[in-house]
Design brief:
- There is one protein chain.
- With 133 residues, the protein is mainly alpha-helical.
- The protein folds into 2 domains: 37 residues; 90 residues.
- 71% of the residues lie in helices and 6% in strands.
- The chain contains 5 helices and 2 strands; from the N terminus they run E-E-H-H-H-H-H.
- It has a two-stranded antiparallel ribbon.
- Helix 2 runs antiparallel to helix 3, helix 2 runs parallel beside helix 4 and helix 4 packs antiparallel against helix 5.
- 14% of the residues are buried.
Length: 133
């Protein structure tokens, strides 16, 4: 068993510790820091949100046809294709709350920047967030 001795200047000294112990401790600390930072790495989620919004915009006819039966069929078809993409992405990536929020935010802003009405963009983003889980 190792003893920890507190020195006068406030530092700690591991008495009887081998150099390998400090290397292992340093690696464990770096691993913990990396894991904490990786939690905030939402780059892949943002790219997916943008690509999903672009897919939606390319496949859906102009919003002026909203309410038309053919428009509704087209939207249903596109949403089914989007669900397939979402399932595949979720299988390959672990999404935490932060990454889900970033994905949804990018998706919504791409729709808004493309001229989709705010109400419809909110509706589509809500649908996406429910599908992501």
């Amino acid at each position: 068993m190792r003893c920890i001795k507190r020195q006068l200047d406030g530092r700690f000294d591991l008495m009887g510790a081998k150099p390998a112990d400090s290397i292992i401790a340093a690696r464990a600390t770096l691993s913990g820091i990396y894991m904490a930072l990786a939690w905030f790495d939402a780059g892949e989620a943002k790219k997916f949100g943008e690509s999903l919004a672009q897919f939606f915009l390319e496949k859906i006819p102009k919003a002026s046809q909203k309410g038309d039966k053919e428009f509704a069929k087209k939207v249903d078809y596109v949403l089914e294709k989007m669900v397939v993409q979402i399932v595949q992405f979720k299988a390959q990536h672990k999404l935490n709350t932060y990454k889900k929020a970033q994905l949804g935010n990018v998706f919504k802003w791409v729709l808004l920047d493309a001229g989709i009405s705010a109400d419809y963009a909110d509706e589509m983003t809500t649908w996406l967030m429910k599908k992501i889980g």
